[in-house]
Amino acid sequence: MTQTFDTSTRTEAPLRADEVTALRGFLDYHRDTFRWKCSGLTQQQLAQPHAPSTMTLGGLMKHLALNEVGWFGHTLAGAAYPPPFTDIDWDADPDWEWRTAADDGPVELRALYDDCVRRADAAIDQALARDGLDARSAEPSSKDGPFSLRWILLHMIEEYARHNGHADLIRESIDGMTGE
Amino acid sequence: MSDVAADPRVDPPLHGDEVTILRSFLTFHRDTLRWKCSGLTPAQLARPLPPSEMTLGGMMKHLALVESNWFDSVFSGVDLMPPFDTVDWDADRDWEWHSARDDSPEELRTLFDEAVRRADAVVDEALTHAGLEQESARKSRHQDSTFTLRWILVHLIEEYSRHNGHADLIRESIDGQTGE
Question: Interface pTM (ipTM) of the complex?
Answer without folding.
Answer: 0.96
